[in-house]
Design brief:
The protein has 221 residues and is α/β, with parallel strands linked by helices. Helices cover 44% and strands 12% of the residues. The protein contains eight helices and five strands, in the order H-E-E-H-H-E-H-E-H-H-E-H-H. A five-stranded mixed β-sheet has the order 2-1-3-4-5, with helices on both faces. Helix 1 runs parallel beside helix 7. The protein is globular, with a radius of gyration of 22 Å. The protein binds zinc ion. The site of zinc ion (ZN) has 7 residues, from helix 2 and helix 4.
Length: 221
């Protein structure tokens, strides 16, 4: 028996005769449509951070007219990312044929999980403002809040059988997204440092003051 076990080659995907082996029939977005889409997406992300205590990620889905917004989503958990949630919602409500002419827009390059969901939902076009590489720089290595992967969406899509069109990063929106998102990551890093150093006040239920807590401790002792 050979000690060296031969590794099977990757399953090679060759363009098939499927109608999804070619890019969407839909024409690309005009610069004005791109600006409008990114502005909406960044506004959504900023509202998510300031009003809803969400992390700085947002995604939306444009109809084939490249202007109407069909769905929007924020990042709601570590496994429910904005882009994947939009793609799932879209796949429930619309046919694959229709979605092939739709465009998913996101502030950040979708991770491997989200890119896979976009692929399976059959959304034909993906546009993002800032790259995964920039996100990694922003979050920093070993950041448990977001253990950013190093697997560009194009690498994921290259292994598929569909010609999903990708545009990104896009200037000047990448800089804007990095700047806006950076505020949250900086604040989060400072807060984490405080937690680690123990200088943070204990979290109290809003109905209880520190004095209330102290009196109950006194009573217990
Ligand atoms: Zn993701």
């Amino acid at each position: 028996m050979s000690a060296m076990r031969k590794q099977p080659p990757f399953f090679t995907t060759t363009p098939s005769s499927s109608s999804y082996s070619l890019p969407p029939f839909n024409t690309p977005l005009t610069p004005a449509q791109l600006d409008a889409a990114f502005q909406k997406c960044l506004d959504l992300q900023n509202a998510g951070v300031t009003l809803h205590s969400k992390r700085p990620f947002a995604a939306l889905l444009l109809a084939p007219d490249k202007t109407s917004v069909l769905f929007t989503h924020l990042s709601i958990s570590h496994v429910q990312h904005a882009e994947a949630e939009v793609a799932r919602l879209a796949s429930i409500h619309y046919s694959q044929e229709y979605l092939w002419d739709c465009t998913l827009v996101s502030t950040w390059e979708p991770c491997a999980m989200c890119t896979g969901t976009i692929y399976w939902a059959n959304i034909g076009r993906l546009i993002y403002a800032a790259s995964e590489e920039e996100l990694n720089k922003l979050t920093g290595a070993g950041n448990e809040e977001n253990m950013t992967m190093s697997l560009p969406c194009r690498e994921v899509l290259k292994r598929g059988q569909k010609a999903v069109e990708v545009l990104g990063p896009v200037k000047p929106w990448d800089d804007r997204v990095i700047r806006e998102s950076g505020k949250w990551w900086k604040k989060h890093a400072v807060q984490k440092e405080k937690d680690v150093n123990g200088s943070r006040e204990p979290e109290l239920d809003s109905d209880y003051s520190a004095a209330d807590l102290q009196s109950s401790i006194d009573w217990l002792s």
